[in-house]
Amino acid sequence: MNTSDFFSEAVIEKIRNLIHETGGNEVGIIVRNNDNESETLVKLLSRGNRWSTPALIESCLRGDIFIHNHPSGILEPSDADVEISSVLASRGVASGILDNEAIRVYFLVEPGAFPEDVPVPMEEVINFFARDGKLAGIFQDYEDRPSQTHMAVDIAESLSNGGTMMIEAGTGTGKSLAYLVPSLLWARANSSRVIVSTATLNLQDQLLRKDIPILEAALGTPVKASVLKGRSNFLCLRKLQTLQREPELFTETEERDSLASITMWAHSTATGCRDELPTQPPPELWEKICSESDFCPGLRCPHNSSCWVTRSRLTAAASEIVFVNHHLLCADLSLRKATGTNRSMILPTYERLIIDEAHNLESTAAEHFGKSASHRGMVKQLGRVMNRRGNKGALPYLVKIISAACTGKGSVAKTAPANEIRSFMNRAVEIRNNLLESMDKLFTDLENFTGVGTASPEIADNGKFRLTLEVVKSPKWISGVAPAIDNFNRMSRNLRILKEDMTSWFRESSLQKNPNEKNRENSEIEDAFRMVNLYMRRFLDASEVLATMLTTGEGQEGSDVVWMEKQTAGKGRTGRIKVISCPIRVDAALRETLFSVIRTIVLTSATLTIRGSFEYMINCLGARIDGREVKISVHDSPFDYASQALILIPHDFPDPDSPDFLKRACIHGAELVTITEGRTLFLFTSYAMLKSARDMLTSELNRITSQMKDSSYEILWQGQDLRHRLIHRFKTSEKAILLGTDSFWEGVDIAGEALSMVIIMKLPFKSPGDPLIAARIDAVEKIGGKGFRDVLLPDGIIRFKQGFGRLIRNTRDKGTVAIFDVRITKKNYGRLFLESIPECLMSKASSDRNIDRTVSFFHD
């Protein structure tokens, strides 16, 4: 058959060029036909040799055509070809073989041999959740939840028909199974996969370890489900081998014990994933041995067959349900944007996506579509090239093995230019010293100018300083900081020139004369040079990002916000500043890379609406494409909040900005705690407030217990220990209270009496002085909006709903939510908060009256 019978001339030319670019060796190619032929994707999928192709089938979608060439011109399929085509056919993918000139083609499975997408069998979805259905068959006291069934039907329709849908599902709806059941049925009907993205590891763990086993038990068949993690979570055997050969060149003394235990673990681990380690290694050590795309030679790696990253991705490719987190999803999207492509860059190719905990997507996307550079990070990258003493790092290692090759008997021995690499080393020492000096000066000047890390009144809220265009054009900046930026740029250019010189030298030297010769000596030298090149490039990339941010600030377009902030305290004064740039809004980027590309997207959470409206979230995420409406659905919680929850609002409290507020709140909070005997979660809007309240609560509770001759309370607070340990201690303690901010407003799932009260100290408005929030307010007000109404208020309501949702976790729970911020009743906007949560019992009264109501509520 002629290729022209199946492909246009333009597509044939692309195929031919891909084959010729690889020297006529065997390659695997995907052809993806779109409705518009000019958009037909022709993608190089894999490179092989003249005899075989490692066909990476995880990138193929239903309806794709996978072709590979036989350089011999003989188009007879091998046994491997037949096996691959069979696997591809089960996924709805055609496959064929062609010659190197792309004139003739032999199809093992012809294009068009597959039907259109099969819709989700709706009856199966409904029957699964019915009173006498499959789910009822594995639970003795099963009670069907109409809201769960309705949600599952909504999702089934979206998976079948395409489009974007937002679903708010109240706590207790059972949303996990509501999306897993139709997702699995769609994946099986279409021999494909569904990606499920979550914000937290807790939910991911619940889905895989709790919900998938329930599905398997109910259906009576195994479910192919997997968790796909980022590359840096996996050990790289190649990098580990390098460190084992020369540990003194790469690791500090205190890291070597960890390296020894990791080496032993590497022989027994099934996944190579860091989470499996009994104790977590120092971050600096893990960074030296984890997998990195820039350092990965792919199929040419001698460890390719045992690579844990490859295994993980192949497992995901064969899965019906693939769980990822928002960070990996957004990393994939940011790579799409950077490369200008619509295809998956990290995740296996997919057409159906479920986004749980979708209220967190905006913040995660902003992080991944942004950029950052820090003194600490750049010093670390430079130290990987060569440390301050010049005796450790990738470059000293390269010098050592090339010098050894020159005096040895290997194939490189007679030709390796040891003197030249030592000359490069000498240049590198001088450049490194100059760079370190220029960086120290630059970051010191930045600290002095902004006050970040000091008590200067010039800094913005939370130790952040916004770097506007006006700032970088100011005389003070031009005279006080710009000279240090210019000097740093000059020093960075010297490193760039060194890198280019070394690359040219290495390419032309005798070290590369026989690139196909596979001996250990050549491999070690190539790996070492790759490391030097990688770490230099990473430093230079960071230096370029830093220089751009410091030179242009937020620029004139106004699409990004730039600020400086203090990093976690480290040694010394410098190294504590981080410069960050991120888009003010992520709607355009998400619209371009996600909502206009993926056929079906379902976003769900318990907190997507404000007074029943999805508009705020739709606009934030850019979910509406070309005026098409986003399908929406609200499924209320099955819990009886009117009898299970009491809201306390003391009307005799001072305003939250009053100097008396915190003391009054802690006195009343301690009184409430004695009623519930601990079991209380305090939620704060700042860590400074939390620390002050901790001391006041400790004093007040000690006073009360001494008067009552009662046992003392255990006070736990964020920062005292790891988050999951604090929550576990709180659950298992007799009389404990837990103080948290930020992340504790969500993801804390404590059912039963262990959590009987949630105290919200202040309404969770973000600080208008935060650079990102300030930039969003500026952008809204430029187009006639109101910063408080359009930015601070809706975000605060979403966070408030999350905090409220910590209390009632099942039908037997009973508890109170105390709101100490009187603005919720005294300000007009306060009703918007109360109208966005379920109807509960309410006590708007004096503090004393609320105490009485609380006692009555728990004793009824």
From TrEMBL:
Gene Ontology process terms (BP): DNA repair
Residue ranges annotated for the Helicase ATP-binding domain, each copy included: 134-446
Keyword ATP-binding annotated: yes
Family annotation (Gene3D superfamilies): P-loop containing nucleotide triphosphate hydrolases
UniProt keyword list: ATP-binding, Hydrolase, Nucleotide-binding
GO molecular function: ATP binding; DNA helicase activity; hydrolase activity, acting on acid anhydrides, in phosphorus-containing anhydrides; nucleic acid binding
Similarity comment text for this entry: Belongs to the helicase family. DinG subfamily.
UniProt-listed PANTHER family: DNA REPAIR DEAD HELICASE RAD3/XP-D SUBFAMILY MEMBER, REGULATOR OF TELOMERE ELONGATION HELICASE 1
Protein name, as recorded: Helicase ATP-binding domain-containing protein
